[in-house]
Amino acid sequence: MSYENILTRSEGRVGVIQFNRPKALNALSPALMGETMAALEAFDKDEEVGAIVITGSARAFAAGADIKEMAHASVVDMLGNPFIDYWDRLRRVSKPVVAAVSGFALGGGCELALACDLIVASETAQFGQPEINLGVIPGAGGTQRMTRAVGKALAMEIVLNDRRLTAVEALHYGLVNRVVPVELYLEEAIKLAQAIAERAPVAVRLAKEAINAVYEMPLQAGLAHERRLFYMLFATADQKEGMDAFVNKRPANWQGK
Ligand code: DAK
């Protein structure tokens, strides 16, 4: 499938999606978001792909939703916009998604990165929720995911007063997995995604589901959910293979079954 706002490719078992609106600093227009979701879902279905990387350019991961397209919208326009559905679809992707972030990750760009499962940041990455400057607030999880990640005090500064986090600060607060020089961020993200993609696919999928359940469930329910997923894996060929490989001191050959 060909797209106008993104580029896609596969590297090994990794599907790579790259935003391609450089003149608008990869602003997340509805068209770009629609294509991104279509590409994510296509990679999610593709058995040759085990993990997905989303990236932008060295200058900008994404500078937020497209302000020019939103500027004159009414509340009814916003309510009817497929934009909201795109963000819900992102949460339903079952394979791990790694954000490779460099430069601006602002507003919806920051929220999109936070909605991914892992983040590899370049030293120039800058995370922020500047919506307050536009007379609005974050609308795609910025008040929720950011607060869970960095705590209330700092989230208040970020959302109420446009405090930006450097890559090193983001690492310190546990927002990102690692920070690397700008020349390496995409390569590192693909390497990390490839390493995960080589692991037992069903276990990876259920592990992601179990960790994300932390945000939805109280501890007792989360523990019970985790246990059910754990038991479920004993119905897979990969559990038999993984444990047999350990016992017989050989590498496992995962089938994803
Ligand atoms: N939208 C549209 N165009 C943008 C843009 C954006 N967010 N950000 C940058 N651009 C465009 C600029 O207009 C400029 O275009 P031209 O004027 O050349 O045509 C070009 O990109 C280069 O930008 P600058 O000339 O401004 O470049 P600088 O290096 O001087 O500044 C900057 C870079 C990133 C600091 C600055 O561009 C900036 O402040 N951008 C806006 C950042 C921002 O406020 N982001 C938050 C947007 S609101 C929701 C889902 C999502 C959202 C809401 C709801 N639901 C599911 C309900 C998300 C909302 C947002 O993200």
The SSE string, one letter per element, is EEHEEHHHEEHEEHHEHEHHHH
Largest sheet: 6 strands, mixed
Overall structural class, as computed from helix and strand content, comes to: alpha/beta
**N-C termini distance:** 28 Å
Describe the protein's architecture and organization.
The protein has 257 residues and is an alpha/beta fold. Helices cover 46% and strands 16% of the residues. It contains 12 helices and 10 strands. The protein has helices spanning 30-45, 67-70, 75-80, 83-91, 108-115, 142-150, 152-161, 167-172, 185-197, 201-212, 219-232, 237-247; strands at residues 6-11, 14-19, 51-55, 60-62, 97-101, 104-106, 118-122, 126-128, 165-166, 178-180. The strands form 2 sheets. Strands 1-2-3-5-7-10 form a 6-stranded mixed beta sheet, with helices on both faces. A 4-stranded mixed beta sheet has the order 4-6-8-9. Helix 1 (30-45) links the parallel strand 2 (14-19) and strand 3 (51-55). Helix 1 (30-45) packs parallel to helix 4 (83-91) and helix 6 (142-150) packs across helix 7 (152-161). The chain is globular and about 60 Å long. The mean pLDDT is 96. It binds 4-(N,N-dimethylamino)cinnamoyl-COA (DAK). 4-(N,N-dimethylamino)cinnamoyl-COA binds next to helix 2, helix 4 and strand 6. Residues 24-25, 27, 63-68, 83-84, 87, 104, 106-108, 130-131, 133-134, 139-140 line the site of 4-(N,N-dimethylamino)cinnamoyl-COA.
